[in-house]
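Hello,

I think I submitted the fe (iii) ion job twice by accident. Can you confirm which output corresponds to this input? Input:
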Amino acid sequence: RIVLGIESSCDETGAGLVRLRGDGTVELLADAVASSVDQHARFGGVVPEIASRAHLEAMAPTVRRAFADAGLALSDVDAVAVTAGPGLAGALMVGVAAAKAYASALGVPLYGVNHLGGHVAVDTLEHGPLPQRCLAMLVSGGHTQLLLVEGIADKITQIGSTIDDAAGEAYDKVARVLDLPYPGGPPIDKQAKQGDPHAISFPRGLTGPRDAKFDFSFSGLKTAVARWVEQEQRAGREIPVADVCASFQEAVADVLTAKAVRAAREYDVDTLVISGGVAANSRLSALAAERCAEAGIALRVPRPRLCTDNGAMIAALGAHVLASGAAPSPLDLAANPGLPVDTIVVH
Ligand code: ATP
Ligand code: MG
Ligand code: FE
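Support: Only one job matched these inputs. Its output is below.
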């Protein structure tokens, strides 16, 4: 069966197509993405109104491109999945409206699914079925959380999250302080390769013995970097950008991987999936690989293109939900900007 997935929760318009095989495995057929990231660059962050308008313009062409790439026709589709939330209200509404139109015109079931579950489900397109229980760490511009996955289509529980900034948000803010372009992840990652990760000792938030075990905090780290840079500037010293990037990046990777491994041990799972835009970070994946190997945990990181927002991840989750036999969403499905992570399908 063929599933069309539509994503529009933030600044990427995504249309993906997957095939659900009889044995329950899911195959990627097409993954078309249009991003409005360039239009947000001068604001240093996503502007909701700009994102919604861009979705409106990009939706139909992106869906058409997915079908062309897969060599399929609209009439081949057996189900439509769409991101119902969480995300930006106006942005989500564009995708939900489009998905309803396709589903009702084609007479196929509609599944309003959870964006965060999609970030986990996408890994099955790359690495095959997930074990019955696993841990997922979602690190992006809008999210930083640890999820216990006990069935990709039916049970996902949040066990920790950031109490302030998301990891990607910290990257974007630190890039701004250092006059590096937006989004900050890629340029900081690149600079860090030339720097010394131990040059400056930046704080590791919420890692004290009395801190909440699986929550994260990156706002103190971001402020510490800004203060350090300001201080050096005031003293008339040149900023060692590569060292600042490497030291900042080390602090982020250290905290994320330490907590993920600790959570895997505590919940007795042997598989860790890392997804979201920050999963593309070279130091994060290297340190995660090192620490997971030591702890006997299998590490799964989808390729960068599948880690950032896309339609294939929504199609993948939709396919798993379809396979589970869950009831479809009603055709009056509404976008829910605050959809909780444990709601995998909206009914
Ligand atoms: P959401 O949180 O809803 O998934 P988003 O658009 O913010 O939305 P993504 O597109 O998954 O999330 O990721 C974008 C974020 O990933 C940005 O903050 C960007 O700086 C960060 N990022 C991208 N590449 C890297 C990298 N190599 N290292 C670190 N961060 C990165
Ligand atoms: Mg994005
Ligand atoms: Fe996302």
